[in-house]
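ok so i was messing around last nite and threw this chain in just to see what happens. nothing serious, just curious
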Amino acid sequence: MPVVPIHDDEVRATVGQVRRLVAAQCPPWADLPVTALAGELEGTDHVLFRIGGDLVARMPKIATAVDQADSDARWLPVLAPHLPVRIPVPLHLGEPGAEYPWRWTVVPWIPGDTPPRLGCDDVPLARDVAAFVRALHRVETAGGPVKPPGSRGSALRHVDAGVRRVLPRLAEHDDGFDVAEAEAAWDACHAAPDWDRDPVWIHGDLQPGNLITDAGRLLAVVDFGALGVGDPAPDVAPALWTFTGAARDAYRTAVGYDDATWRRACGWALAPSLTSVDYYRHSFPRMAEHGRRMVRAVIAELVSATAGSGSGRRTPSRRQVRLSALIATGAGVVCGGDTAQASLCLSGISVPAAAVHQFTRLPRLRQPERRQDCDQTPRPLKHAVGSLGWS
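result:
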């Protein structure tokens, strides 16, 4: 069955092209069979081909992914010695040819499983992934590629306009969450203070499809398309992308960042999820469903964080959700009841209630609609090349 493109501008390499490229550029592998991987392992930005039993060719299929071949070849050999699990260090950096326009790589095939696509409550695995993140974040960053504005690891303000643009389109559909609640959650994330310490190396896409496991323990981390130096928050977001229940809490504790970073991590879970629901609605339904789940998870996380755990607490208003972001920045909020008799005290400056009216004009939050999550089973024979991440 032919693979249905998920992007309008895909350039899909073929088995014949890969066979010719390998024969011309990698003579020792020229006699190995070349086979296309199953579409469910392909991901959003590369087409993948097995070469014999031990290798995989990664062929970019969209222009926004073409820099990854050079990045992987340059930086993965630098990072690998510092990390506790395997990563797909390229064995060959290929040149364009055979009517294929871009550079490509050959990496090792790493057999194993991946966690369930929609998350798992696996505390040991959560701690394994957190240990990988801590090791990556300790690596010296000198000379590393700084994350540009709008990419994961930059300031959230650079993606604010994109989030605002997609919200009206989402409001036209029933995706199992309240779009007004999603907007309030985004406002809370966006209000978190920027990372103001030294930047760190980040993977940026530690979702289930990029984790290889063996007997439930982390064996390898793959797909470094979002690699760079910046804010660590995207590598805290796997608490939401990848884990549920006690494992979510275990990951957040083990990775060890502060509440402001957690709020930005929620933002990096929410922003690409909102846009992916819209973008992949028809072309990649599995990715759209993952996005819906993430939106619901972020809404629930921010609401629970504001409401507290005491019994009998009422679901907080959207006003409270937004003001919780100000609390996270170190601002003190004093409210004189349900009316706008409030003042914001920040650095000793009193701000009249009119200045915070933007946070007080919205109705109460409703709990987001629940949907039955799909495909909760681990997937076998994951490779060291694919991505189920956002392009």
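not much to say yet. Residues 308-391 have pLDDT under 50 and may be disordered.
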